[in-house]
């Protein structure tokens, strides 16, 4: 098991904020590296002559790999040095991103962009969120929400930068740039963050695989966790589908340049999500003091209220209405995001939080991984407008799962000691 040494639990403000800052930058690149492909997708399609189904398959491959490996990452995060896990996975996925710029076939993209980048990124979130949750116990939702904002900045800036670089210098250069930045940050991370003390015997490491099944059975006996996972899966399905195809949707529908589409498809939504995640965290932290189920209620409201605006994004006839819908969709998506980890922590014990989060991520991403491929297959016949509009129904379904978790099972499953 991993015991946090004084250097990781001390109340020194400088260290606490340096840790959060470096993890924020790492998460920024985690999301940016994932999004580059979707932004320059039209250029790759034109340059290499790939079909929409093939492009969707490449996008889905990353999510499939992520979903399969993230539960293993969660269990490893509870048993090995989280600082080493975070540093090495950042270095690995950044090298894979850099090498993606050399790809020229579907197989190469699946191997580097799908399996290598997705595999490296899978080991980040469980350890990072567990480390932040332990360091910021009194302001857990706030710290985790600040960390979550890196998602929005990473996706927005990657849209602008990758779109511009792709149009002017070629899509390959975008992968070179972001991959190189990650390699540099990995070395900074190893230099600035002290190694945490690991108390792990050979016997305990051999038992890790047996404990995966034990922990899975433990969380499976809590229906609230199942409802949270199904709701998360619905959210991921919508999010992955939107992120993969929205830039191409704006290019096709409004004849926008790649740079403008990369910016517009991501900025307005994630500006709203940034504001939503901060307000959602404040709201849930306030009400959770007297009623911890409030975290799930805020999430359920986020999905339910966001659904009409997903439909509006696809059906709007003007760019202005599309941008307004993107912004409001983002606000309520942020409400959901602000409590992804905090809600789970209300119903699982501290000793298995990293492992439980890894399992939840795995199931959710395996559910959501089919969205890019399905939308790519349906694009030539159904069209992206109808395909993206149908995602609103998935948000409604996710909201129903969360309402069930909050009001049917939460009282039985909640943890007394947080």
UniProtKB/TrEMBL annotation:
PANTHER family the UniProt entry points to: PROTEIN SPINSTER (PTHR23505:SF79), SPINSTER (PTHR23505)
Keywords associated with the record: Membrane, Transmembrane, Transmembrane helix, Transport
PROSITE patterns in UniProt: MFS (PS50850)
Boundaries of every Major facilitator superfamily (MFS) profile domain copy: 19-416
Highest rank taxon of the organism: Bacteria
Protein name: MFS transporter
Entry GO MF terms: transmembrane transporter activity
Signal sequence extent: none
Record Gene3D superfamilies: MFS general substrate transporter like domains
Subcellular location, record wording: Membrane
Subcellular location, principal: membrane
Transmembrane annotation, as ranges: 58-76, 88-110, 144-165, 171-190, 224-246, 266-284, 296-314, 320-336, 356-375, 387-410
Pfam families found in the cross-reference section: MFS_1 (PF07690)
Topology in membrane: Multi-pass membrane protein
Transmembrane helix found in the keyword field: yes
CC terms in the record's Gene Ontology section: membrane
Annotated source species: Spirosoma arboris
């Amino acid at each position: 098991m991993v015991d946090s040494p004084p250097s990781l639990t001390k109340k020194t403000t400088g260290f606490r904020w340096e840790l959060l800052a470096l993890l924020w930058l790492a998460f920024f690149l985690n999301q940016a590296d994932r999004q580059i492909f979707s932004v320059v997708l039209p250029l790759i399609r034109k340059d290499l002559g790939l079909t929409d189904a093939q492009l969707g398959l490449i996008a889905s491959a990353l999510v499939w790999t992520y979903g399969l490996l993230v539960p293993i990452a969660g269990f490893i995060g509870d048993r090995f040095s989280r600082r080493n896990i975070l540093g090495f996975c950042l270095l690995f996925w950044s090298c894979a991103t850099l090498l993606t710029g050399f790809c020229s076939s579907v197989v190469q993209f699946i191997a580097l962009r799908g399996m290598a980048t997705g595999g490296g990124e899978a080991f980040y979130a469980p350890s990072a969120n567990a480390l932040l949750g332990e360091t910021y116990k009194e302001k857990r939702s706030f710290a985790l929400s600040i960390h979550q904002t890196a998602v929005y900045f990473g996706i927005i800036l990657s849209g602008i930068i990758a779109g511009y670089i792709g149009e002017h210098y070629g899509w390959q250069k975008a992968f070179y740039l972001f991959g190189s930045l990650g390699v540099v940050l990995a070395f900074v991370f190893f230099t600035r963050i002290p190694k945490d003390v690991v108390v792990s015997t050979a016997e305990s490491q051999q038992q890790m695989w047996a404990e995966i099944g034990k922990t899975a059975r433990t969380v499976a006996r809590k229906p609230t966790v199942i409802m949270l996972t199904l709701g998360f899966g619905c959210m991921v399905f919508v999010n992955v589908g939107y992120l993969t195809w929205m830039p191409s949707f704006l290019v096709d529908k409004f004849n926008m340049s790649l740079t403008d589409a990369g910016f517009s498809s991501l900025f307005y939504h994630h500006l709203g999500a940034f504001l939503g995640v901060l307000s959602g965290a404040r709201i849930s932290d306030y009400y959770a003091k007297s009623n911890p189920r409030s975290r799930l209620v805020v999430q359920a409201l986020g999905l339910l209220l966001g659904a009409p605006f997903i439909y509006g994004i696809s059906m709007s006839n003007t760019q202005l209405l599309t941008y307004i819908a993107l912004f409001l969709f983002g606000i309520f998506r942020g409400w959901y995001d602000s409590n992804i980890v905090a809600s789970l922590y209300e119903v699982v014990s501290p000793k298995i939080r990293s492992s439980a989060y890894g399992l939840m991520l795995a199931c959710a991403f395996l559910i959501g991984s089919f969205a890019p491929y399905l939308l790519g297959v349906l694009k030539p016949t159904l069209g992206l407008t109808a395909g993206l509009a149908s995602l609103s129904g998935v948000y409604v379904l996710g909201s129903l799962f969360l309402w069930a978790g909050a009001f049917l099972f939460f009282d039985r499953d909640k943890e007394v000691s947080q």
